[in-house]
Amino acid sequence: MAIGIVSYSHTNFGVLKEDIPELVKGVVEGAISKVDKGIDPKEIDLIVTSCVDNQFSNQHQTGTLAWRYLKNPDAKGFKVEAACASGSLALFVAKEMVRAGFIKNAMIVGFEKMSNIPTDKVTSILIRGGSPEERMIGITQPAAYGFMAKLYMEKYGATEDDYALVAVKNHDNAMRNPWAQFHKKITIEDVKGSKMIASPIRLLHCSPITDGAAAIILSGEPKRYTDTPVYIKSMAVAHDTLGVFERADPTFLSASKKAADEAYMKAGLKPSQIQFAEVHDAFAPAEIQLYDALGFSGKGEGYRLIRDNATAFSGSRPVNVSGGLKAKGHPIGATGVGMMIETFLQLRGEAGERQLPSPEIGLIENHGGTGAVAAVTILGR
């Protein structure tokens, strides 16, 4: 069965005035209105929401909230949560239900409203994405990623300049993206001079606190709704230990590799055939580690790609042309859905100033916590 994405809706990412009901209503109605050949809400059998913590949204039953705005009383609605990978896991659940024949069409709605609570409260919520043991001794997400990044430097020879280059690249890319939270170029010196958060991670390595929403419509009959659907070539989900301290090799994102290997196998593709990618750079050093996990580089060699500009907008395999989580923003529940939309637009030739030259295959890597769950999706025309 050819399952495809047929429509989308996407808010700006940043500090937004809209509350959760407004954001959800806007993207639900927006996705319906953008279907090329039109769709009756009664044709959408399922609406799956993706949000990470009800303390952000101040709203339980978010599936029913989205169902309200769909205006199909016979549809079903529920929430999927998998930390920062929630958006991709919501798509995975919906796709599998279409593939199994339980439903024909589904809408996936990701959102988060993070700016309405203090930063220290945000941090205390996000730390729950790690292991109970790490949480008990106060290891935050930046600290865990910092530990991984430091070991990678020591083992393979990556430098602070390499990590800074990821942030510089993604800020430069965000300049072309009207949805992005940051429209400001930065330099290596800016990154290295920013506040130390958890060595070697500094403030300008970190994705921001973000509000935003995004939605896609998935169909088992995509040509019924558009002449230019984007197909899910393959999708895979894999896991690793919750705690970084439990891993055999903390420098390597094993769940991302396992998911990528399965996705490549299902799609009948090799890493070399991926033309561009959106990856989970919640902290800039992770992007380099993901080059290794996704097979774009040999193990421990990812930093060479950033040094050679291979993953730049004009490089041989652009990564995070949207600006990534680092500069586009990271409204956690909306992040994975937004990554799908970026890839959808690129493949349809509708990405505006950031459009790449006629891509046919794109990859999305979205992981939760410090890589305890990872989803890799390959989309194509």
What features would you highlight for this structure?
14 helices; alpha/beta; Peroxisomal Thiolase, Chain A, domain 1; two-stranded antiparallel sheet; 381 residues
The CATH class of the domain at 4-116 and 209-224 is identified as Alpha Beta
- Within CATH, the superfamily of the domain at 4-116 and 209-224 carries the name Thiolase/Chalcone synthase
Backbone shape: globular
**CATH architecture type of the domain at 4-116 and 209-224:** 3-Layer(aba) Sandwich
Show unreliable segments.
none
CATH fold field value of the domain at 4-116 and 209-224: Peroxisomal Thiolase, Chain A, domain 1
Helix content: 25-40%
* Termini gap: 15 Å
Spatially, the strands of the biggest sheet line up as 3-2-4-7-1-8-11-10-9
Report the strand count.
Answer: 11
Q: How much of the residues is beta strand, in percent?
A: 15-25%
Oligomeric state as shown: single chain
Average of per-residue pLDDT values: 96
Give, in order, the helices and strands.
EHEHHEHEHHHHHEEEEHEHHHHEE
The tally of helices reads 14
Radius of gyration: 19 Å
The biggest sheet, with number of strands, parallel, antiparallel or mixed sense and barrel status, is: 9 strands, mixed
Derived structural class: alpha/beta
